[in-house]
Design a protein that fits this description.
single chain; Purple Acid Phosphatase, chain A, domain 2; 3 domains; six-stranded mixed sheet; extended
Length: 350
């Protein structure tokens, strides 16, 4: 039995404030449905973040519903879990779609399809998790694995031993697959580039649950062009002029020269949909400032002492300053120590 595994479709993402990008994310989801129908899969399994927001617009809901009705007409069930972006307090969008007969909201009670059990775990927060124990079949979840993110909520070894034969993940936007101990664990990646860092082609997984064979199918998405910080931004954009029309251009800037506005306008004037500039100069400046601050703090006590001496303050004021900055007097004791000092000074008539 073959299923189509997808995740992180993020319908409704109006990237860079552009309607064209919102349409791109919706069209990518439509491609997923078309592939499922073309390949005659037994089901689509969606591992969360169908929507980019818990409050999708009426337009985004309408397009998603229309696409899911098309899938239903083809007789292909849509099985899914809830991701962090779309998660609501009570009723989830998947629950609404389930009531309309368009989807199955997977949970820890196994859902049987074609003799295989599917269990699901909705997004459960950024805390360490122990996966549920299942008796074979498929576990679907939307979390980060420690293999892809330091401090990921789920541990790879725990998933290998949770009882599932296949673990279909979402939340991480790059395609990953591991196969060990007769267990397959995979992320399909996002269906559109949700961030500039997502350089690899977008796609979906076609998975045979009986043989474990996984085939990758790329999606047709908007072109992203990258101009490295070793290139002159204007010359780099000009060098890609044949590919600029409708593309999103990312320029990495490390040297002084053209302004960001000038670079963005130059790219758009030559047909780019959007031009994003990552200014590495600011990062370098911040690093230099952090070093400078660290050096200054190393001499801060001596600088303060010198300045106080120049002000010719009274001895009692200097004593209070000494208490406040004394390394062995904790903050909770400062008031008591200052009070004691003032009482002693008053008694001595100072």
């Amino acid at each position: 039995m073959r299923v189509l595994h997808t995740a992180d479709t993020h319908i409704g993402t109006r990237q860079y404030g552009l309607e064209e990008r919102r349409a791109d994310f919706s069209q990518a989801f439509q491609q997923v449905i078309e592939i499922a129908i073309e390949e005659r899969v037994a089901a689509i399994v969606h591992s969360g973040d169908l929507f980019d927001d818990r409050y999708p617009s009426a337009e985004d809901l309408h397009e998603a519903l229309r696409t899911l009705f098309k899938l239903k007409e083809a007789g292909i069930p849509f099985l899914g879990v809830v991701g962090n972006h779309e998660q609501r307090r009570n009723l989830q969008w998947l629950d609404l779609f389930a009531q309309l007969g368009l989807a199955v909201h997977l949970n820890l009670e196994p859902h049987e399809l074609g003799g295989i059990c599917f269990s699901g775990l909705d997004y459960s927060g950024r805390r360490e998790l122990e996966p549920p124990h299942v008796k074979g079949g498929v576990l679907v979840c939307h979390q980060l694995l420690d293999r892809v993110h330091a401090g990921g909520e789920l541990h790879y070894e725990d998933l290998l031993n949770c009882g599932a034969q296949h673990v279909l993940m979402g939340d991480y936007h790059e395609h990953q697959v591991w196969q060990e101990k007769d267990v397959l664990i995979t992320y399909p990646g996002s269906t559109e580039r949700w961030s500039l860092d997502e350089r690899e082609p977008r796609g979906i997984n076609l998975l045979d649950l009986e043989t474990g064979r996984l085939d990758r199918r790329e999606l047709s998405t908007r072109k992203f062009l990258y101009i490295s910080d070793e290139e002159d931004p204007i010359k780099g954009i000009n060098a890609h002029r044949q590919q600029l029309k409708g593309a999103v251009v990312c320029v990495y800037l490390a040297h002084d020269g053209q302004s960001i506005q000038e670079i963005e306008e130059h790219g758009r004037s030559r047909g780019a949909l959007a031009v994003r500039v990552r200014d590495h100069r600011e990062e370098l400046d911040e690093q230099e400032q952090r070093v400078s601050v660290q050096l200054e703090f190393g001499n801060l006590d001596s600088l303060i002492s010198e300045r106080l001496a120049q002000l010719n303050l009274s001895k009692i004021t200097q004593d209070i300053d000494g208490i406040i900055r004394h390394p062995k007097i904790v903050d909770s004791r400062v008031d008591d120590e200052v009070t004691r000092l003032l009482e002693a000074a008053e008694k001595n008539g100072k």
